[in-house]
Amino acid sequence: MAYDTSTDDKIESRSDYADTPAGRYKYWATELTVSKKAREPWWKKSDKIINRFIGKHQGIERGDDTGGFNLNLFHSNVKTLGDMLYGNTPKIDVSRRYAQPNDDVGRVSAEIMERLLNLDIANNGAEIDAVFRATLQDRLLSGLGCAKVGYTFESEEVPVLDEMGQPTGETEEKLISEDAPVDYYYFGDILWGWCRTWDKMPWLAFRSYLSKDDAATRWGEDVAEELTYKKQTKKTSNEGVEDDANDSAWMRAEIWEIWDKDTKKICWISMGYDKTLEHKDDILEIPNFWPVPPFFIANVTTSLYTPTPDYTLAQDLYNEIDKLQTRIAVITEAVRVVGVYNASADNLKSMFNQGNDNDLIPVENWALFGENGGLAGQIQWLPLSDIVGALRELITIRDQTIGLLQQTTGMTDIAKGGLNNQYEGVGQTDAKMKFGSVRIQALQDQFARFASDLMQIKAEVISRHFSPETIFKRANMEFSADIDLVGPAIELIKDTAQAKLRIEIRPESVAMVDFQALKTERTDYLNAVSMFMQSAAPVIEADPATKPFMLQLLQWGLAGFKGSSEIEGVIDKAISASEEAAKAEEGEEQAPSPEELAMQAEQQKQQGDLGRIQAKAEADMQLRQMDMQSDIQTSQASHQMKMAEISAAAQAKIAEIQVSLQADLLKEQAQTESNIASTNASVDGEIRKDVIEFEIDMAKEEASTTAEIEKITASALADIESQTVAAVLTPEPKGE
């Protein structure tokens, strides 16, 4: 797809373009066209990576379809990383920079800003959560995540009233509401100028799509008629053909909002419309100009500021695993009991088709069956040993390749959460599982930094554009114990340069951190305070003048803990009261004047107020301790119930396994007895056959011997008879 521009891709001087709507359009059309060409290979690769993530794998780099069985480890790895890096909607922590204990105005300013940011997150939690999740997914898939802060307000014209409350006939604009929304931008809807690092970024452009009605509302009917409208598609790149089944039904105009850092101007254009739609000064007026924090970007180098997706670094291993898994699936299909048998012995097939137990199959010509080798001579099975051996080898190679992939991607470090030795604690195991390696920790820090920078921009927009009335109302500071410091605190917030020096903004819980650690930290602090008070009490009792110093020491330690800003105001007043009491004791004893009596009354009133505040603080502390104990008891009860459920499930599973094993044992015993009976029957048949053959041979031998004896007897009788006849016929010799 060619972009509709009438310019080439070369710029020699910005002065070559007239400072008119047409000249500015020609300049920005050239910049956008060049940037699109540079981003096109990355967009194309990202589209294929996203398809791989959702299981529509068709080859990322080589363009070949591995086909067969795709083991989608990429999806599993991305989901694991995503869940590990982002577990909750962040709770913003704003505190005094460097935890300075004496900066009370900074403390109250931090408390006000923290309330504003957290209130916005509470009211728009689903939107903020969606922004962070979408940004993180873009970073893990395409390599770049982006979110943008804006400023919106609503106002109305109201009549101006005079001192008597009567209308003067004039009107003025009254602010109704104002907000600093955070918007997610898809990675394919962002372009930027050529640069090597973020600090050298010349311009940023954000694409949005407006319907004809919206364009007419903003820029007029004439402009809306001349804009080019098209359907939005799923694909980011412009190569290849996308199935139009995923296209939007709406025809929309493609609008680019361009932030130019050199001129501090913002320009809106639509490719194909030969004039700028709008051109105005910076609307946010924040120090860094950009409405976005530095991109949440992957594998960027100093040669060119452009992302390289993580998948690209391990794509060959992912594809190799799919090939191995495909071969394993094909060979697994071949692991079957298959063989050939003598076609003339057709009754052998019934042994497997009928599936009858304890049954004998008749063999017609048993002698011939025996001469052919019996059952072993009639059937030959497919040799599975070679196939199974190849399958085992492929599985081994696949598992080794998966291990290499996990080492390459860093997932092996995440899996190091198991107990390596018996002396390792559960806390150590949890820490290893959450922060398995430097790479994973660095990615967590990068995401936390991105979220922190995003909230910092939001805080700067609030500081510059929100009215003091809006800040005071939304922060709900009317009932604050530091009401006398609220005014100076809001003034500090409105002075963004000073505010950045004195307060710090960071998200507490972007990643899946251990909230039990936060509870443990506060519990340890309360224990430390208790020990400190026990140690300080004798010193204060011996010398009451040391009380202010002890309270200041306590305040110094308290300033380093999260959520300490509320109770620090109480300690500040206690320090002031102690210092005044110490000064009063050091003064000479004299009759109090009316002014002194009034001052003492005021001090007593203040001390009473302080006592009430302290009592309230102690009551709140007791309630918090009770809530903590209740939470612990509830957690213990829940844990015991879960353990009981797990134990019951385990016992049921063990019983089920035992029943299954007993059934398998009985089945094996029956099968063994059947095999023994079959073997005995076969042996008895063979013995009976041998006996019959022996008897037949003996009968034949006996018959042969009897015939031979009769023959010999007959021959002997014949000889005797012949000799007798001869003797009778022969005359006896006469005597001389």
Structure summarized in a few sentences:
With 736 residues, the chain is α+β, with helices and mostly antiparallel strands. The chain has helices at 21-53, 73-85, 104-123, 125-141, 212-219, 221-226, 310-334, 350-353, 366-371, 374-378, 384-409, 411-414, 426-434, 438-465, 468-475, 483-494, 496-502, 515-542, 547-558, 565-586, 594-729, and strands spanning 92-96, 144-149, 152-161, 167-179, 182-185, 190-192, 203-210, 229-231, 251-260, 265-269, 278-281, 296-297, 339-341, 379-381, 503-507. The chain is elongated and about 190 Å long.
In words, what does this structure look like?
There is one protein chain. A hairpin with a 4-residue loop joins β9 and β10. Strands 6, 7, 8, 9, 10 and 11 form a six-stranded antiparallel beta sheet that branches. The chain has a three-stranded antiparallel beta sheet with strand order 5-2-12. It has 21 helices and 15 strands. By secondary structure, it is an alpha+beta fold.
* Tally of alpha and pi helices: 21
Q: Give the overall pLDDT as a whole number.
A: 77
How many beta strands in the DSSP annotation? 15
* Beta-strand share of residues: 5-15%
The amount of helix comes to 55-70%
Q: What is Rg?
A: 47 Å
Task: Give the overall form.
Answer: elongated
Distance between the termini: 158 Å
Contiguous runs where pLDDT drops below 50 for at least 5 residues: 1-7, 59-67, 417-426, 511-515
Give short descriptive properties of this protein.
3-stranded antiparallel beta sheet; single chain; 736 residues; alpha+beta; disordered N terminus
Question: What topology does this entry show?
Answer:
Blueprint: H1 21-53, H2 73-85, E1 92-96, H3 104-123, H4 125-141, E2 144-149, E3 152-161, E4 167-179, E5 182-185, E6 190-192, E7 203-210, H5 212-219, H6 221-226, E8 229-231, E9 251-260, E10 265-269, E11 278-281, E12 296-297, H7 310-334, E13 339-341, H8 350-353, H9 366-371, H10 374-378, E14 379-381, H11 384-409, H12 411-414, H13 426-434, H14 438-465, H15 468-475, H16 483-494, H17 496-502, E15 503-507, H18 515-542, H19 547-558, H20 565-586, H21 594-729
Antiparallel strand pairs: 1-15, 2-5, 2-12, 3-4, 6-7, 7-9, 8-9, 9-10, 10-11, 13-14
Helix pairs in contact: 2-4, 3-4, 3-15, 3-16, 7-11, 18-19, 19-20, 20-21
